[in-house]
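From the pipeline queue, job 12 of 40. The input is one protein chain; the requested action is below.

Action: predict structure.
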Amino acid sequence: MHIAVAGNIGAGKTTLTELLSKHYGWTPNFEDVDDNPYLNDFYNDMQRWSFNLQIYFLNSRFNQILDIRRSGKTVIQDRTIYEDAEIFAPNLHAMGLMSTRDFSNYKTLFDLMVGLIQPPDLLIYLKASIPTLVNQIQKRGREYENSIRLDYLRQLNERYEAWIKGYNLGKLLIVNVDETDFASRKEDLSSVIDKVNANIHGLF
């Protein structure tokens, strides 16, 4: 089974992935942040590095999905391939940070890849307001995230909401992070686990 956790920068995807993998004994599959050779450059010069970064993520996540399906295990994945194509790349294009030629090239490659994979059996979307995202980004203190602008986060949030509204690829669970502190409160984590159980048992 393939479970995926989606959400904006700072929504708590990695934390929830860790907590659920521990609880269920699932194999966690994390976003390739530490080894990403483009991320630092991207935050310093988005226009120059946007296409390189998005292609890197697309390739990385496509390979992850192939590995997940081949493994035969239940895997929980931190961020999906769809978020890159539905949120991050179009947002960069709209902001003038990715050329139309590069965006079109990227989208053609994504459409080809997505025709070869299956969507997750369950998508968990972490919905969070801008103040919550900013608070959590500051708390984890990643140096390259210091330069993220509020309007950038806001634009991403709008695109996430639009994507989730039309999401029809499989089961969907929405967790409101403004009201749910699963990282610090056991009862909040239990509540999320109860909802995940309800969704999973409906998959069999």
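Job complete. DSSP finds eight helices and five strands in the chain.
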